[in-house]
Design goal:
Blueprint lengths: L1 H16 L2 H21 L3 H27 L17 H13 L3 H26 L4 H19 L6 H26 L10 H10 L5 H6 L12 H6 L4 H13 L1 H7 L1
Length: 259
């Protein structure tokens, strides 16, 4: 009787001492893994649409928050009474200032367009090309910059030229950032044998199992040969094993190499 009480008391104490923040983080991670697993099984149009909408919503929230902090300063840059007599360059500068000084709604729109378009194009490029590189990153940035120029009204009177120049500027900046990131985060030489493996696990939300692959020397060259037994030997649980094998079965390149 006393033993039962002490056991129950210890269990209750353990639950009480459990960090609520850690519990929330674990639940959020679980939901994120399930969502990524579901998304990886969808067709390209569905995945691109979902990624664009969710990223746009995140960008809108960030933009609205930043707009709230900075306040609506657009009223300070209203056109003068004789705005009709201003030359096109002056009007373009005025529109640019208004686009950058807008309140929460304007900033939410701008950030939603930038992040949504960027994420959507990145998703399509990743699925079509099977990798993430500087070309894909610059293409996504170009589309993001062009759409931002169109919705914000920045630049001169020629919207088409403005969209192209803004897109090129965004692409060059993004390309430079990508190259710097690659330079300073170059993986060790042995990790180059796990590039496709890392990409696959990341898409499935299973990046925590990369160490299992390395421990079993399951490199990129072994991906077409993977089976349930091999994954079980490196102590990967049943659920992730099914997701990995399903991904390999649905990947045309890996499926072709298995024959």
């Amino acid at each position: 009787m006393v033993g039962d009480i002490s056991t129950k008391g210890g269990s209750l104490m353990g639950q009480a001492e459990q960090n609520p923040i850690a519990v929330v983080q674990a639940k959020f991670k679980e939901v994120e893994i399930r969502f990524k697993s579901w998304l990886a099984k969808q067709s390209l149009p569905v995945e691109a649409a979902v990624v664009t909408v969710t990223s746009g919503a995140q960008g809108a929230a960030i933009g609205a928050f930043m707009g709230t902090l900075s306040g609506d300063a657009s009223s300070l840059v209203t056109p003068p009474p004789n705005a009709g007599n201003l030359n096109p360059d002056a009007m373009a500068s005025l529109k640019q200032a208004q686009a950058l000084a807008g309140g929460p709604l304007v900033q939410a729109r701008n950030f939603a367009v930038m992040t949504g378009v960027n994420a959507g194009i990145s998703c399509v490029m990743r699925r079509v090309r099977g990798k993430e590189d500087v070309q894909s990153s610059m293409a996504a940035a170009f589309g993001s910059g062009a759409m931002f120029s169109l919705v914000s009204g920045m630049g001169g009177p020629n919207q088409a030229v403005n969209a192209v120049t803004s897109g090129l500027f965004f692409a060059l900046v993004q390309g430079g950032i990508f190259q710097l990131g690659q330079k300073f985060s170059q993986p060790p030489a042995e990790d180059l044998n796990y590039v496709k493996t890392r990409f696959m696990l990341s898409n499935l939300g299973l990046q925590n199992y990369e160490k299992n692959f390395k421990r079993g020397l399951l490199s990129d060259s072994t991906l077409p040969l993977l089976n349930d037994s091999a994954l079980r030997d490196v102590k990967i649980p049943p659920g992730p094993r099914l997701l990995i094998l399903d991904h390999i079965e649905r990947n045309s390149e890996l499926k072709e190499r298995r024959k």
